[in-house]
Amino acid sequence: MKKVGVQGLLAAAACLAIGVASTATAAPERQREYHLEEQDLGTALRSLGQASGGQIIFPADAVEGKRSPRLDGAYTLKEAVDLLLRGTGLVALDRKGLILIRGRGSSAEIDASAERDEIVVTGSQIRGTGPVGSSVTQITRSDLDKSGYVTVQQVLQKLPQNYGGGVSDTTFGISNFNGASNGTWGGASVNLRGLGVSSTLVLVNSHRQPAGAYGSFTDISLIPTTAIDHIEVLADGASAIYGSDAVAGVVNIALRNKFEGAETRARYGTADGDYSEIQASQIFGRAWETGNFVVAYEYYHRGNLLTDKRAFAREDLRPFGGGDYRSGYANPGTIVAGGRLFAIPAGQDGTHLSPSDLIAGQSNKRDSREGADLLPRQSRHSAYASLEQEVAAGFTLFGNALYASRKFHRLYSQADTQTAITVPTTNPFYVDPVGTARPVSLRYSFVKDLGQPLRVGTVKVFSAAGGGRLELGPWQAEFTGIYGLERDSQATLNVRNSARLAQVLADPNPASAFNPLGDGSHTNPATIDRIRGSYAYRTRNEYWSASAKADGPLFALPGGDVKLAFGTEYREEKMTSTETLDTATLAPASSVRTDFPGGRNVLASYGELYIPLFSHENARGGLHKLALSLAGRIERYSDFGTTTNPRVGVTWEPIDGVRLRGTYGKSFRAPLPSEVAQGPIYNGYLAYQLPDSGKPVGFSNVLLVLGNDPNMGPERATTWTASLDLEPKFLPGLGLTLTYYSVSYKDRIADVTADAFNFLEKRAIYAPIINEQPTAAQIADLFTRPEFSNPFGLAETDITAIINAQRQNLSSVKQSGLDFDLHYDFQLGGGAAQAGVDGSYIFRIDQAVTSASSPQNIVNAVGSPIDLRLRGRLAWSRDGFGFAAFVNYTGNYRNTLLAAEPKISSWTTVDLQLSYELPQKQGLLGGLTLSLGATNLFDRDPPYVEYYNGDTAIGYDPENADPLGRVISLQVTKRW
């Protein structure tokens, strides 16, 4: 569709909507035909919500074990709900069209955390319809409580459609894939389909949030779980609805804005004493006829997990049948002189060392993970408040605010820079193993002198949204303003300052010189303090937005009302960053990083049309229900121009219990600020030796061009899905959903450096970025750049190739797969039971790393999603007792980091949760729930993986497993 055509469509729709809204008057609710069999009450209410397009909210535990009567006839929504609740002890309250279900005469909460069957905001801007053609996964408050997990990232990590590659505590410092390096501030991301964390849009209360780590992702770890009502996951392209970033899908975290009552929680968990978690929270809410108010607070603390607590967290993998990847930078160190290695002996202080004491031809080694954290220590405070008030008939003001602060403390393994030091002849401890009387090079670790490198920092996030809602008959208009701010700061301590180190190495005085030749630390503490360096970074990310939208019916068809939503949005994003380096100069040097763009603003307009062609009111033959959705969005970026993205959805129900759905759409993602930034901190030129089995020596000397392509452009994608839903009437409670999806991603922004050690070994893939016949002038030019680095001391004549390893628009991805969910709700032993399994199976991920390369199927490869992930579930409850068990399965795959590509075993873990809620009549203890949980109940270690990233190694894959093992937790919840 051309841009002018879409703008014209939106303008016409807006004019039509204004005309309808201005003449519409409130009409009494009309009756509809409903035909529901006797069944589980929760299932009946869900079906009623879908059939009516109304809004029903009910606590899951309130309907457990209850049955509904047969419903057959014409009723208003309230009348239908009352009939379903007859004899259950529950009552329905109608609050301006919102049906709230609670216990009769009870002062307990009315909690939207229960089940929000019909309020599926994600995937549509039209109230009460849900996304036509798409399948939305909903994680309810009850699901969160049963899971046994304490944070949002833990819950979402078990979602089969969410790939573990990306930003998280487990991947940072280990993985080079999927932007894991952006986890430096200890955050966590969502990576639907494995298409990248920046391709999944994360919303809170349906609104964008400020992004951290150079604008690369929304940090879900800062959201207090006690304030979460439910989480909706749409694993389908939705740029036509929400704009850029929604290529792989949308995750909307809806908070408990309509909570009534009070709830106190306290939880403690431990991983066999090696690791601990503490959570304490309080939420309070009140509702009245014209409004509601909620306030919540949560404290979360997590201890660290040291590498020495897990046998697989080491660089020497020989006990597992792997290689020895320990570093040659150790204490005692190794002298390199005359092209030979000389290991410094153990058990001496370096003050009386002679050349004959050195061990020629050997190198001392050190496991750089020794003394480091697998998971860092964290503490988080978070608070949330929400207020809504009707100030005049049909006009409501609303506002909410979220604040979170996290501190982290990581014992770091990679900060001890592995660059050889030079010991001059003036050093009083100097030893010359080859008799040249020249300075010698020394491979040395400073950990025993300076202590374990330590990274500490804070992340502070504030976001606030406010606006008004106006009801004009059946139409509703809403305007919203949002402000968000994230401030991140970190400092890495206990690293060497090379400038001051050179001074104390050259100092001839034994009392003040640095002694690098002993076993352990044998230097004056004042000298050690002098060489102690650090580096620190601070970022500030601000976000402003304003939006206005309206939705309502246009006219009636025999199948129902044709509805329209339209709106406009404006947002601004701005990022600044500063750094302070005390590593290479005598005094600390601070600077504002001006290499980021000055900011970005986006103006968007959209329209969405819902067309119910057939419904229960005019069903005929094979057209029991047929609905169509058309959506389009135009966005103008201040730095990337204009993009237009359409979307079409269709839902067809040929007979009761059988539903066919499909979607087709275009999506778009603008480059992140960190992907377009220019300057010395990003651009670099590295002379390096890469493996090359085609050469007799086994390697080639190359020059790598690093950084961001200055001509970076946006990514574009085409997505489509086809789904089948089965709910057979002969077996109430049984349901099956199958969704086939296809994503075609073009102009993908590729960071190929994660596979740098395979550039020459995989020439067929990387040939377009390799120049194997560079001119002398090209090489000489790069050698003179200020960002040039030469750790091997190569000469210009040694270089045989120049490789353009810049992040750039190179790759394309075509992915297809199948999502499925099978569930059955039934009665067992006088209680309510639920069983099911949901999963995702990926057929192929064909990726062309460069525009001229042949596509390669990368599914089941390290750094890419695994084809099969499953999560089975079984739950039962009766008279306050609850039982929930989950089985998590990750299929086998292959280790493409090694030439032989050995097989990696599948991994199965079991989670268990037991709970008991005391009856309300127990007085002060009434409403108290005790929960005992165990995740990874049988303490299964991750599958062994010889995971080598070019710098360090470890014995498991952090993107597909976690190192915790069994975690036992006890939680106490009191509802007031």
Would you mind describing this structure in some detail?
- It contains 13 helices and 52 strands.
- The protein is mostly beta strands and 976 residues long.
- The chain has a 22-stranded antiparallel beta barrel. Strands 19-18-17-24-23 form a five-stranded antiparallel sheet.
- Helix 2 packs antiparallel against helix 4.
- The longest helix is centred in the N-terminal third of the chain and has 21 residues.
What secondary-structure arrangement, pairings included, does this model have?
Layout: H1 3-23, E1 32-36, E2 39-40, H2 41-52, E3 55-58, H3 60-63, E4 67-68, E5 71-75, H4 77-85, E6 90-95, E7 98-103, E8 115-116, E9 136-139, H5 141-147, H6 152-157, E10 200-204, E11 228-234, H7 239-242, E12 249-255, E13 261-270, E14 276-288, E15 291-302, E16 305-306, E17 334-337, E18 340-343, E19 359-360, E20 373-375, E21 377-392, E22 395-411, E23 421-423, E24 440-443, H8 447-450, E25 454-472, E26 475-496, H9 498-506, H10 525-531, E27 532-557, E28 560-582, E29 589-592, E30 600-614, E31 625-637, E32 641-655, E33 658-669, H11 673-676, E34 684-691, E35 699-706, E36 715-726, E37 734-750, H12 763-766, E38 770-771, H13 776-783, E39 788-789, E40 801-804, E41 808-828, E42 831-848, E43 856-857, E44 868-878, E45 881-890, E46 893-894, E47 903-904, E48 907-917, E49 928-935, E50 947-948, E51 953-954, E52 967-975
Parallel strand pairs: 3-7, 10-12, 34-39, 35-40
Antiparallel strand pairs: 1-5, 2-4, 3-8, 6-7, 9-11, 11-12, 13-14, 13-52, 14-15, 15-21, 16-20, 17-18, 17-24, 18-19, 21-22, 22-25, 23-24, 25-26, 26-27, 27-28, 28-29, 28-30, 30-31, 31-32, 32-33, 33-36, 34-35, 36-37, 37-41, 38-40, 41-42, 42-43, 42-44, 44-45, 45-48, 46-47, 48-49, 49-52, 50-51
Helix pairs in contact: 2-4
